[in-house]
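From the methods appendix. Each design record in this collection lists the tokenized structure first, followed by the designed amino acid sequence. Records were kept in a plain field format so they could be parsed without special tools. The example shown here is representative of the layout used throughout.

RECORD:
FOLD TOKENS (77 positions):
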């Protein structure tokens, strides 16, 4: 992955985070982004992927964490 692609990925995450109309839309956006990342980076075995592609894994994991937190907040409310 080149630096430009990594920057695009971070911009996409920030657009979803900052401009989604509500938490449900934000969760849907994160789900699409995670699915796109799994496809683009061929993430099948998460442990192996984490070992080989640490920077991309950290971004993937942060997005997944943010999505799970939003889902938990929706369940609590």
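DESIGN:
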């Amino acid at each position: 992955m080149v630096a430009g692609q990594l920057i695009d990925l971070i911009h996409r995450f920030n657009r979803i985070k900052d401009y989604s109309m509500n938490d449900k839309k934000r969760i849907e956006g994160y789900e699409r982004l995670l699915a796109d990342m799994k496809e683009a980076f061929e993430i099948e075995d998460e442990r192996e992927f984490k070992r080989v592609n640490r920077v991309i894994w950290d971004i993937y994991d942060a997005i997944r964490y943010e999505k799970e937190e939003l889902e938990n907040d929706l369940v609590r409310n």
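APPENDIX NOTE: DSSP finds four helices and no strands in the chain.
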